[in-house]
Amino acid sequence: MVRVDPNSSVPPFEQVRTAYAERINDGTLPVGAKLPTVRKLAEDLGIAPNTVAKAYRELEEAGLIETRGRAGTFVSAVGDESRERARQAAADYAALTRKLGLGRDEAKAIVDAALG
């Protein structure tokens, strides 16, 4: 179950987006799993439907979920592809940093800075 901490400095839509992204990426929510409707999740969490809709939009833009009209919203198989693309990007980055003569610590520091 996704939870929203009303006392957190993190906006509610971001809490929802992050919670679902983590559950999808770690396999807790498998490909094809159906997500609650925007209204149902908003009601369960005690937040505005637009807040949930924003989180769902961002998850869909990231390719982690897909909306199938009246059938509902589901975990997308594209999420697996996204993870593979990230792995490939990491491998490409590692090759580039080696080519440039950067050490492991410096390469990691660059990634940490980029991730913010």
From TrEMBL:
Annotated keywords: DNA-binding, Transcription, Transcription regulation
Limits of the HTH gntR-type domain: 10-78
GO molecular function annotation: DNA binding; DNA-binding transcription factor activity
Segments traversing the membrane: none
A Pfam family the protein falls into: GntR
Stored InterPro entries: Tscrpt_reg_HTH_GntR, WH-like_DNA-bd_sf, WH_DNA-bd_sf
Name this polypeptide is given: HTH gntR-type domain-containing protein
Protein species of origin: Amycolatopsis japonica
